[in-house]
Write a structure and sequence with these properties.
The chain is of the alpha+beta class and 367 residues long. It is built from 13 helices and 9 strands. The protein has helices at 36-44, 68-91, 97-117, 134-152, 157-168, 179-182, 190-196, 199-207, 215-223, 244-259, 270-278, 287-296, 359-366, and strands at residues 2-5, 19-20, 26-28, 49-52, 305-308, 313-318, 328-334, 337-346, 355-358. It starts with a strand and ends with a helix.
């Protein structure tokens, strides 16, 4: 399977990975023949990247970060509990904190189990699910990235559960933001952005008094937009004033936000998002966490077409875990000519060769 930008896919190509709805039901099955009309519809639904079948990669299968079952159950739990928390605040009623804690703990343990089974660096870019609420899927993705980084950092089981629940609930305050602001297709006004900026404190207020939800979880919601130089919000905290859980969740939050489709902008590819994070090292983010995050995610996802420094063009077919910028690449074009017999190059074994561009990057510059 080859990963392509939806706008660059060609009519007549076949879908290499199914596209699902919120319930986990396939809207389009693997092997579906793509048409111009279908590709336009997918793009308008927010699917900016898809897998297409490619006989040169017939032996390559993409391994999902988390199983369909884990994803489906997690999204349903997030949707149900977020709605109940928001309603309890509006109606001034007491929520069942015991059940909430148990339900979110199950989600965290399921995600952790899947992460530990996964042999590759993490990539959510190609998870093609159509959701009815960005907050729900974003909360899940941030939790996956957060837990993967926390595992890499060596957190124990208690700490993993704490930071996992904190990540799941970090954006619960957005349930109080009017949908016309949350889903606005254009740029927010200054006044609208001020409303958005209330969600960390609103989330904290929602969570701080819930039975069996720790105050630390509430502080994850409160502090995930704080930055180490004091430029964040709501309180402009600096350095160690920001809990390490909130710093980690903040990094995962930004990474998923910029690599996800939003109505007002295109998603970045992982390597572009990582460059954005590195640009904030020492000012916005602690370099320790960015460096470890770099080793956790798939900077160049499997199936992505890349251009090497020597001019060869290839497709990423395997990750070298812990060396995210040095994957195994299947060379399909050399000296400007397509190869009848592609071959693999492990960039770990060729340190003088680097990835200098992706197919999508080149297309955006020329088109």
């Amino acid at each position: 399977m080859r990963l392509v930008a939806t706008k660059q896919a060609k009519a007549g190509e076949k879908l290499g990975k199914p596209i699902y709805d919120l319930e986990g039901r396939p809207l389009l099955r693997r092997g579906a023949v793509l048409t111009e009309r279908l590709l336009t519809r997918l793009y308008n639904l927010g699917i900016h990247y898809i897998y297409v079948e490619d006989e040169r990669l017939a032996d390559i299968e993409y391994e999902d970060v988390i199983s369909d079952e884990t994803r489906r159950e997690a999204i349903q739990t997030i949707k149900t509990e977020f709605t109940e928390i928001a309603d309890s605040v509006k109606l001034n009623k007491v929520i069942n904190g015991d059940r909430l804690s148990v339900d979110f703990s199950k989600v965290v343990y399921s995600i952790l189990s899947d992460i530990k089974k996964n042999r590759d660096a993490l990539s959510i870019l190609s998870d093609v699910y159509i959701y009815d609420n960005y907050v729900f899927t974003h909360s899940l993705n941030v939790t996956v990235y957060t837990l993967a980084l926390a595992v890499k950092l060596g957190y124990n089981e208690r700490e993993l559960l704490e930071i996992g629940i904190g990540a799941l609930l970090h954006d619960v305050g957005k349930m109080a933001v009017p949908l016309e602001i949350l889903n606005k297709p254009g740029k927010l006004t200054k006044e609208e952005f001020e409303v958005i900026k209330t969600h960390p404190k609103v989330g904290y207020d929602m969570l701080k008094d819930l039975p069996n939800i720790s105050l630390l979880t509430a502080h994850c919601a409160l502090q995930h937009h704080e930055r180490i130089n004091g430029s964040g919000y709501p309180y402009g905290l600096k350095g160690d004033e920001i809990h390490e859980y909130a710093q980690i969740i903040g990094i995962a939050d930004v990474f998923d936000a910029v690599t996800s489709h939003r109505s007002y902008r295109k998603p970045m590819l992982p390597h572009e998002a990582l460059e954005l994070l590195y640009s904030g090292v020492g000012t916005l983010y602690d370099i320790r966490y960015i460096q470890e995050f770099n080793q956790t995610i798939a900077v160049y996802p499997i199936g992505l077409t890349v251009v090497l420094s020597d001019g060869r063009v290839g497709i990423v077919v395997k990750q070298n875990k812990g060396l995210s910028t040095r994957p195994v690449v299947r060379i399909v074009k050399e000296n400007g000519k397509s190869l009848d017999e592609p071959y693999d190059v492990d960039l770990v074994k060729h340190p003088n060769v680097t990835i200098v561009a992706t197919e999508s990057t080149l297309a955006s510059k020329t088109g």
